[in-house]
Amino acid sequence: MSERKVLNKYYPPDFDPSKIPKLKLPKDRQYVVRLMAPFNMRCKTCGEYIYKGKKFNARKETVQNETYMGLPIFRFYIKCTRCLAEITFKTDPENTDYAMEHGATRNFQAEKLIEEEEKRIQQEREEEELNNPMKVLENRTKDSKLEMEVLENLQELKELNQRQALVDFEGMIDQYREMEKREREREKEEDEREMKEMLERALVKRLRESDSDSETEEESSSKQPDKSSSDKPTDILTADKPTEAEGASAGGAKKAKVESWERSVGTLGGKGALGSLVVRKKPAVTVSKPSSVTETAAPISQTDSKPATTDSTDASKPVTTQNGSSSLSLLGAYSDSDSNDSE
Question: Which residues pair with 67 in a beta bridge?
Fold first, then answer.
């Protein structure tokens, strides 16, 4: 089985290459090749910049009657990318470069211009030395002087390098590190000292404030009497309050403040709801005359220290009035009137 990609061709044993007819092609014929711009250039027609490395489909031809040491020189034709003007350049084997011919100007060739200028100066100097021996002497003295200056500069550089070689860079770095370490320690000590001073000032301030607070508390406690020892929790229930009559006799004066529990329950000493629940002990009263009884009858309070004195025999017996009613009935009427007044 034959190979798929065959590069070699079969030549029979009786092959004679002289029998192959030769094509008569012109020497200046052109070929279409693909190339990149060898340098930066600018079109003379439209001013478009064509940068190095841009690809073109160029036509190549061999320059007639122009060679360099037997090497042929080739010419290339390209077109501007903007105005389609024709630009031509050719090879320069003498300088291993390309030379611009027509249609554009080459950019950024400063190095090439400097080299050309140096070559021109060297050629002029050689021509002068051939014809003028004094010029040769002057050039030699200048060259020797320049050489001496160069040697002096070189010696100075060597001495400087030797001086720098004796410097202990490791020691300098260690010294710098030690200096930084001492600086950090000093800053740390200053920070600690400032912190201690601040804490001491804050502590003194707190002690002063606590002393002043204790003094004010002592003064307030000495001014206000201690009522907790003398008063009892149940004393408020039996405390006497001013009656409504006293409030009315004040002539429209401001009433005393009444607590919420007193409004709902009342006190034992007053005539409120709790007062009606207390049964008061009433001593027996002797009435001689009904007229005097009705005029001087009044409720007897529980707080009376000395009740009216009567005989034991008179208290045990019911007292009759002129109207025939007993003293007990009168006492009942008195008690009823008292309860009505309280309501």
Answer: 72
